[in-house]
Amino acid sequence: MIHNYDDDCIFCKIIKGDIPSYTVYEDDDVKAFLDISQGTPGHTLVIPKTHIPDIFAYDADLAATVFSKIPAIANAVKASNPAIKGMNILNNNGTVAYQSVFHSHIHLVPRYTDHDDFAMIFKDNSGNYDEASYTKIQNDIKAQF
């Protein structure tokens, strides 16, 4: 893989070693390191070693390369602490989706209990939709392929 870097990107600086990180896994294509915020203990970021802003800029080869590493890294995080009971795997894309660093990254957030200071809320909006509205959304998406 050809690596492109953005000199203003904090994650590119971490990849190049200009900024230290707590690396847990690294190969030619990806780097995984502890998120400095540690939303829960073991919170890890997985990033491609080439600068790419978000999921919308991936091609199939890069996606296959990066996402194929997630299960092994997630399993290593889980195996590192017997108290881990589950894991959220998140990828935020765009400011509205809470992306704050514009170098694609996947969060691996270990879960310990129902009260481990991490929450996701999926509101049930199904009452706002009928068959016609679901079908319109479905067809709008299918038309993009």
TrEMBL record:
One of the record's GO molecular function terms: catalytic activity
Motif (Histidine triad motif): 103-107
InterPro entries (UniProt xref): HINT (IPR039384), Histidine_triad_CS (IPR019808), Histidine_triad_HIT (IPR001310), HIT-like (IPR011146), HIT-like_sf (IPR036265)
Secretion signal, residue range per the UniProt entry: none
Taxonomy, superkingdom: Bacteria
GO biological process, one term: nucleotide metabolic process
Pfam families: HIT (PF01230)
Domain HIT: 10-120
PANTHER family documented for this protein: ADENOSINE 5'-MONOPHOSPHORAMIDASE HNT1, HIT FAMILY PROTEIN 1
Protein name listed in UniProt: Cell-cycle regulation histidine triad protein
